[in-house]
Amino acid sequence: TYPAQLMYQELADIACARITDGITRKMEKETPIRAILDPYNPEGSSRHVNFTTTKTDRWQTSPDRCHVNWVILDSGWEGEFCRVSEGHPRVRSYVKNHALGFEVPYRVGAANRIYRPDFIVRVEDGYGEDDLLNLVVEIKGYRGEDAKDKKTAMETYWVPAINRSGKHGRWAFAEFTSVYAIESDFEKEVESKFDQMIAAIPAANETTE
Fold it and tell me: What CATH number labels 54-208?
């Protein structure tokens, strides 16, 4: 960013937002983010999803992996993701965030916006069947500035806040950007979470001694 660019209010707002994001990440332990849920609808479930559609581009889900019988595809990439999810040994269930009501507020500069992630996947990442990881997944091709702001909102604000609340399980965020690498990227993401769990075991043992 050059000083002259800040003469444009929109660019100045974006620069301020990026600085705020950086400070928030740095100060996460000292001043943690707190989650503020919708007071009228704090929780949702895929068992309540019901909608009609005229779209023909869709994926018929496996009943032992998803409550919703069809995934309405916004791209062929999402169909590939469904295939990978249903075939992955650690995936217990998944759902497309369509008519589910899962929304995350975020900002682009000074403008307030709403982000609707693509999928939620429940993964057995080493903590057992009673403590599955809820992995929020975004399927993205071209990554514009808006996509970066959404990722920041999830990783810097929403995920730390909801995990800190301790009331809604464990959550993480992943973004897949190549349809041809979805399977390998998904495997890496699951393994990454598993490795984090293994790395945390010595610290946990030291705390309890």
Answer: 3.40.1350
